[in-house]
């Protein structure tokens, strides 16, 4: 935290890889060497020299000299360089323009880069031109860049130290930078603190010298209690993504500045308990079981994203009671499941799998026996939700007669016919496909009794959840020939990772297609999910909106404008709303907007208020009895 009054404090900011995301001379190289066939080699050499300089392995002068020589750059390349760099100002600097302009008298940009491009990039963000200290290029008559002004201290070793000494700033000095030369200012006793800035690069030799690591400018501002764009720095918020969630999701969280950890497989309960302690946002797919025990150890957890449709793997009730909002992707892989189901129905009815296996053994068995068209066959859908209805439409397009059974009254699409009971459907269908959700009550929905009710030689598909079918009963039905073929994508016990063996009594049946829970695993679906779910989680984190949540009162909120948003999650007992508003009345706070939604067990109140209020309000709101979670957004 600042030790002197703000007016007597100076902020020294590095340019390359701190103010901007990149090293300017690397970008200049990409422009000046664009036509050279050996461009990539030279660029790699330039990058290596930059890194060695930044890590303190070679001198500044040497690093500059070597790079300028390799660059072969010209004055005419500078406009393109400036344009590119303008688009590469670090995200947290972009977000915090107000800090840069409000404190322009106290901010210095000091760099061993070059004024010719630094000034046009930093001054539009509020930095004063005479507060930029950097080298200047030396040009020949033809405009080629042939070197730099060697009398400038910044072209020499310990140049930044010399410059700060010459500036003789009357107050505390805080240095923010990614390089060793930034740390040297502190080492020389000329700065009070050195913040290693890691938003763009992480240099271990620099990090180990830092007083504090700043993954973003927000972190620096938060640490010093200075006004900033984020109420709480996102770099302090940890996102844990399991089960190979699509990289597009990882990018979305990283772009927002979160600390993201990814793991390829699922974790078991104990592993997850260990991993989740400091996690605020959890992303999983169908395998990770988020149990009550896990949640009891997840004190920072604000929200869970199921990067799939099913949410039966999550204890939704406990999540709600603990104020954790859960979201899923209800439509992103629907079509993929439907296409696989259609493909399997055709493969099974034509007996293709055993035929193909025989061919691989050299057996040529050309015959029409046990091979049929799907046209005119009766398809029975158990569960007529998003997948069931979509399959209904596509199957009808293939000429199938569709029957369905759902516990909820559903509109029959096209010519599909609704069955009054499960038993009615079981008796009528030639092919039965499961599309119910995985709620616990659906355990063993299809067992011996149900198989006995089916037609002899029926085909059976389960692409929903493993536990909805009693596997020993299915094995018996396959053995007796009652079920002539099956397509199974889901199993009561599924391996946690691709390294684990799949163990099941279902292995070895000739006309049974076994797939490793890939109904929703297409490139398209995974990318759609990877975009959709982070969108929901970010809306909740950034704005408080819970629209589409599977366990929370749903609220779609307006964007925050010129106000602070207080989010209060509480047990749904009488009188809480009154107590919240008593606090606002007591402190004479003008409410700009207020939204409330409840479920049986929790209430979610959002109040937008003007920016000037005392800290006491927040403390009092947090202390209201039955408060589950409280958050402040601005
Ligand atoms: N294999 C895979 O990779 C995938 C599997 N799934 C599974 O498919 C399930 C269904 O997905 P959606 O159609 O999107 O869900 P949905 O929620 O839109 O539809 C489920 C339907 O099943 C009905 N239902 C529930 N229990 C029933 C019962 N006992 N009898 C009759 N109907 C019942 C519900 O009323 C609802 O209409 C998901 O919950 C998930 O478990 C989803 C995507 C991919
Ligand atoms: O969407 C679902 O419910 C699925 O079953 C797909 O699960 P996955 O993301 O492939 O683990």
What would you note in describing this structure?
- The protein has 634 residues and is α/β, with parallel strands linked by helices.
- It has 4 domains: 9-223, Rossmann fold; 237-327, NAD(P)-binding Rossmann-like Domain (Rossmann fold, 3-Layer(aba) Sandwich), CATH 3.40.50.720; 334-521, Rossmann fold (3-Layer(aba) Sandwich), CATH 3.40.50.720; 558-633, 2-Layer Sandwich (Alpha-Beta Plaits).
- Helices cover 36% and strands 19% of the residues.
- It contains 25 helices and 24 strands.
- The strands form 5 sheets. It has a 7-stranded parallel β-sheet with strand order 16-15-14-17-18-19-20, with helices on both faces.
- β11, α15 and β12 (303-306) form a beta-alpha-beta unit.
- The longest helix is centred in the last third of the chain and has 21 residues, at 523-543.
- The protein is globular, with a radius of gyration of 32 Å.
- 42% of the residues are buried.
- The model has no long low-confidence stretch (mean pLDDT 95).
- 2-oxo-3-(phosphonooxy)propanoic acid binds next to loops.
């Amino acid at each position: 935290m600042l030790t002197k009054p703000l007016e007597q404090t100076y902020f020294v900011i590095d340019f390359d890889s701190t103010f901007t995301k990149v090293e300017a001379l690397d970008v200049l190289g990409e422009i000046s060497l664009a036509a050279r066939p050996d461009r990539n080699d030279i660029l790699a050499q330039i990058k290596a020299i930059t890194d060695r300089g930044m890590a303190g392995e070679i001198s500044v002068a040497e690093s500059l000299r070597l790079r300028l020589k390799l660059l072969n750059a010209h004055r005419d390349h500078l406009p393109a360089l400036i344009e590119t760099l303008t688009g590469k100002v670090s995200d947290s600097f972009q977000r915090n323009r107000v800090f840069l302009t409000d404190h322009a008298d106290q901010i210095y940009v000091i760099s061993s880069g070059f004024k010719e491009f630094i000034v046009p990039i930093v001054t539009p963000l509020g930095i004063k031109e005479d507060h930029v200290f950097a080298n200047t290029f030396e040009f020949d008559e033809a405009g080629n860049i042939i070197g730099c002004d060697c009398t400038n201290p910044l072209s020499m070793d310990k140049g930044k130290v010399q410059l700060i000494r010459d500036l003789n700033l009357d107050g505390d000095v805080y240095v923010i930078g990614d390089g060793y030369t930034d740390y040297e200012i502190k080492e020389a006793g000329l700065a009070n603190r050195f913040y290693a800035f890691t938003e763009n690069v992480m240099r271990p030799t620099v990090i180990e010298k830092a007083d504090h690591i700043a993954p973003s400018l927000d972190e620096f501002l938060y640490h010093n209690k200075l006004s900033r764009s984020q109420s709480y720095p996102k770099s302090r918020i940890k996102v844990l993504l399991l089960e190979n969630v699509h990289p597009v999701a990882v990018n979305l969280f990283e772009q927002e500045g979160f600390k993201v950890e990814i793991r390829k497989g699922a974790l078991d309960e104990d592993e997850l308990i260990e991993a989740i302690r400091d996690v605020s946002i959890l992303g999983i797919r169908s395998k990770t079981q988020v149990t009550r025990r896990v949640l009891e150890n997840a004190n920072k957890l604000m929200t869970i994203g199921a990067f799939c449709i099913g949410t039966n793997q999550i204890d939704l009730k406990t999540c709600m009671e603990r104020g954790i909002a859960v979201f899923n992707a209800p439509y992103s892989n629907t079509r993929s499941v439907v296409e696989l189901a259609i493909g399997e129905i055709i493969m099974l009815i034509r007996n293709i799998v055993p035929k193909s296996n025989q061919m691989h053994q050299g057996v040529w068995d050309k015959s029409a026996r046990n091979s049929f068209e799907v046209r005119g066959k009766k398809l029975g859908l158990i569960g007529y939700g998003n997948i069931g209805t979509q399959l209904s439409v596509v199957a009808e397009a293939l000429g199938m007669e569709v029957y369905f059974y759902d516990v909820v009254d559903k509109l029959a699409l096209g010519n599909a016919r609704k069955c009054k009971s499960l038993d009615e459907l079981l008796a009528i269908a030639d092919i039965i496909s499961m599309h119910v959700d995985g709620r616990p009550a659906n355990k063993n929905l299809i067992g011996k009794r149900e198989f006995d009710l089916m037609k002899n030689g029926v085909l059976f598909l389960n692409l929903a959840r493993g536990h909805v079918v009693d596997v020993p009963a299915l094995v018996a039905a396959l053995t007796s020939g009652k079920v002539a073929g099956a397509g199974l994508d889901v199993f009561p016990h599924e391996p946690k990772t691709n390294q684990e063996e799949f163990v099941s009594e279902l292995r070895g049946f000739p006309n049974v297609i076994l797939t490793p829970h890939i109904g929703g695993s297409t490139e398209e679906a995974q990318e759609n999910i990877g975009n959709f779910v982070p969108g929901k989680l970010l809306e909740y984190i950034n704005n408080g909106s819970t629209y589409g949540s599977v366990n929370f009162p749903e609220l779609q909120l307006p964007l925050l404008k010129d106000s602070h948003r207080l989010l209060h999650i509480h047990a749904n007992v009488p009188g809480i709303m009154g107590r919240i508003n008593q606090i606002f009345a007591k402190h004479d706070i003008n409410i700009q907007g207020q939204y409330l939604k409840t479920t049986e067990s929790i209430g979610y109140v959002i109040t937008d208020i003007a920016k000037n209020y005392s800290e006491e309000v927040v403390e009092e709101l947090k202390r209201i009895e039955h408060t589950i979670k409280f958050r402040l957004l601005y």
